[in-house]
Design a protein that fits this description.
mainly alpha; 2 domains; globular
Length: 207
Amino acid sequence: MPKGSPELTEARREEIINACEKLYQTMSFKEITIKEIGNATSFTRTSIYNYFQTKEEIFLALLRREYELWIADLDQIMAENETLSKDEFADKLAHSLEKRAQLLKIMSMNHYDMETGSRPEKLVEFKVTYGNSLKTVMHCLEKYFPEMPIPEKQRFLYTFFPFMFGIYPYTFVTEKQRAAMEEAGINYVLMSIYEITYNCARMLLGE
């Protein structure tokens, strides 16, 4: 276990997560190593193992933090809006994910690797946060659409959350991917995170 105050422990955990996040902006998941992350922190590389055993655990912590930020955004929507129409809720939900490109990127590309490469207790911590995100969206539906039957609310959740895994690949395309689709004769239409999320949410909410 790391030595020091809880504040120091949390600060170092955050520094490790921040270093991973910064590297992920220019490097792929496969390219990033514990050594690379250690070089981007202010303490020794071996100290990282006091907090995380694998790079997958660091990425899982980053993903957990992204979910927590999204939950906070959803809570703020509910605090600031007593009522919302279907169009208004879809709009605000889409804007909340528009700010969370990092969340969507990690979800779509490295979710399986992170979960299989993390200790059970780290996975449980993440699943608690993931479960809270499900509960928060359900609370939104309960607040703004109390007349919606429970099966319809559940259908929204268990369609929308799997849908989130595909948002990033459809909204961020490399030039290599674009060229390949053109050569394959695929008429690809680039959509933003906002557009694709709004369309899905609005469809699930019905008329």
